Amino acid sequence: MNADERKSFAAFLRPERLEEPPRSLAGLADRKALRVNAGAPASDIEAIRHVTESAFARPDEADLIDQLRCDGDVLLSLVVEVQEQIVGHILFTRMCVENTPAAALAPMSVLPEFQNRGIGGQLIREGLRILRERGERIVIVLGHEHYYPRFGFSTEAARNFESPFPPESYMAMELSPGALDGVRGKVRYPAAFGL
Ligand SMILES: CC(C)(COP(=O)(O)OP(=O)(O)OC[C@H]1O[C@@H](n2cnc3c(N)ncnc32)[C@H](O)[C@@H]1OP(=O)(O)O)[C@@H](O)C(=O)NCCC(=O)NCCS
């Protein structure tokens, strides 16, 4: 894979799995805080880079987040803190299906030692709740077909989209009923995705 391909959005499909992860939130729940990373202070930017690089074991996705932030394409950035340390992050950016606005979920990261404790799920649910509250109507994700459906995403909802991604991994969901009615055509991502 060359450098450009590594930076492409499709590279997000590469799974990162932990061996024998801890399954319980026991002892973590009461020390965990989720907050909107609205102003992105310098300390958060560094911490988000660390979480993202650690989760993906390479800098590409962290670079992408920095570029999206610089370009003003971030819709929502959420972090999870455990004892004041940022251990998880999720980003939503503005995208369109032809001329219909949607939110793209990508990338999302949890520090390897905190994975498989429900933090990723918490980030997604809270992100969707906030986007719905803000009046966003459609969310799109490229990801694992066994993970994202539990939050309401489906490949069926994305069937009318023209995208460069494998249809079995390309999913959408409505945040308000009927939001996807008649929505079809090419997906358009922020320039930083390099599509
Ligand atoms: C994906 C990620 C953010 C999930 O965070 P998390 O806190 O571990 O997620 P949760 O604890 O809520 O959910 C864990 C579940 O997701 C599954 N899962 C996690 N990553 C997965 C992957 N890449 N492919 C398939 N399933 C995955 C786990 O098997 C587990 O499933 P189960 O509940 O059926 O056992 C985290 O694993 C991570 O940072 N991975 C590396 C970066 C990445 O691949 N990001 C996603 C693409 S942008």
Structure explained in plain terms:
The protein has 195 residues and is an alpha+beta fold. The protein has a single domain, classed as Gcn5-related N-acetyltransferase (GNAT) (Aminopeptidase, 3-Layer(aba) Sandwich), CATH 3.40.630.30. The chain contains 4 helices and 8 strands, in the order H-E-H-H-E-E-E-H-E-E-E-E. It has helices spanning 3-7, 42-56, 60-71, 119-133, and strands at 32-36, 74-82, 85-97, 100-110, 138-142, 161-162, 170-174, 185-188. Strands 1, 2, 3, 4, 5, 6, 7 and 8 form an 8-stranded mixed sheet that branches. Helix 2 (42-56) runs antiparallel to helix 3 (60-71). Coenzyme A (COA) binds at residues 12, 15-16, 55-56, 106-110, 115-121, 143-144, 146-147.
List keywords for this structure.
single chain, 195 residues, alpha+beta, 8-stranded mixed beta sheet, 8 strands, 28% strand, globular, binds coenzyme A
Show the helix and strand layout:
Elements: H1 3-7, E1 32-36, H2 42-56, H3 60-71, E2 74-82, E3 85-97, E4 100-110, H4 119-133, E5 138-142, E6 161-162, E7 170-174, E8 185-188
Parallel strand pairs: 4-5, 6-8
Antiparallel strand pairs: 1-2, 2-3, 3-4, 3-8, 5-7
This protein binds coenzyme A.
**In total, how many domains does the architecture comprise?**
1
Might you state the CATH topology name?
Aminopeptidase
Small-molecule components bound: coenzyme A
Distance between the termini: 16 Å
Runs in which pLDDT lies below 50 for 5 or more consecutive residues are 9-26
The level 1 CATH classification is: Alpha Beta
